[in-house]
């Protein structure tokens, strides 16, 4: 979801993957993205930054953040997920490690951050919250933990000029 309208606030409901805010802001533009592993591997961040560049923006000017999501301590995936993630230009082997059941665990935050840096986003403008939705039941909803009725929301808006 993107907008150039300062009167349109975005408040998407989130799943426990990497939710907004992804406030990719440059004066008149903001984007709120939702990326699980499929979105990350599928290039959602790369497409958003390309759209921003098409509007005349430079990636280094973006203010950006990744919200809480399941962290690698609990994000068990199949080997096919790691294989798909390895196809990304920003991949490095530190983004996956074997879990306690010999199944890989993926660092989704790390993969998206690596993509952001690969795209030229300034690490000094990163406001990410690397909190684990699985580890913090008192604060964060996680469907993977068995929560069926919780929700998380993100909020992003452009200030009035």
What does this structure look like?
The chain has 161 residues and is of the alpha+beta class. It has helices at 37-42, 44-54, 79-86, 108-118; strands at 2-3, 13-14, 30-31, 96-98, 104-106, 152-153. β4 and β5 form a beta hairpin. The longest helix has 11 residues, at 44-54. 34% of the residues are buried. Mean pLDDT is 81; it is low at 13-26.
Annotation keywords:
161 residues, CNF1/YfiH-like putative cysteine hydrolases, two-stranded antiparallel sheet, 4 helices
Summarize the structure.
With 161 residues, this protein is α+β, with helices and mostly antiparallel strands.
SSE pattern, N- to C-terminal = EEEHHHEEHE
Mean pLDDT: 81
Known CATH architecture of the domain at 15-72 and 107-153: 4-Layer Sandwich
The assembly state of the depicted protein chains is: single chain
Largest sheet: 2 strands, antiparallel
> What is the total tally of β strands?
6
SSE order and pairing:
Elements: E1 2-3, E2 13-14, E3 30-31, H1 37-42, H2 44-54, H3 79-86, E4 96-98, E5 104-106, H4 108-118, E6 152-153
Antiparallel strand pairs: 1-3, 2-6, 4-5
């Amino acid at each position: 979801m993107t907008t150039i309208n300062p009167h349109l606030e975005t408040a998407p409901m989130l799943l426990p993957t990497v939710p907004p805010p992804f406030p990719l802001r440059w004066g008149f533009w903001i984007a709120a993205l939702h990326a699980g592993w499929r979105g990350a591997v599928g290039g959602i961040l790369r497409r958003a930054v390309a759209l921003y560049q098409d509007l005349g923006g430079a990636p280094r000017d973006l203010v950006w953040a990744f919200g809480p999501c399941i962290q690698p301590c609990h994000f068990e995936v199949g080997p096919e997920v790691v294989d798909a993630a390895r196809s990304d230009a920003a991949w490095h082997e530190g983004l996956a490690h074997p879990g306690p059941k010999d199944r890989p665990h993926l660092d989704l935050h790390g993969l998206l951050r690596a993509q952001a840096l690969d795209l030229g986003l300034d690490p000094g403008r990163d406001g990410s919250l690397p909190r684990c939705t699985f580890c913090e039941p008192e604060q964060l909803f996680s469907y993977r933990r068995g929560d069926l009725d919780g929700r998380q929301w993100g909020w992003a808006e452009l200030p009035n000029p």
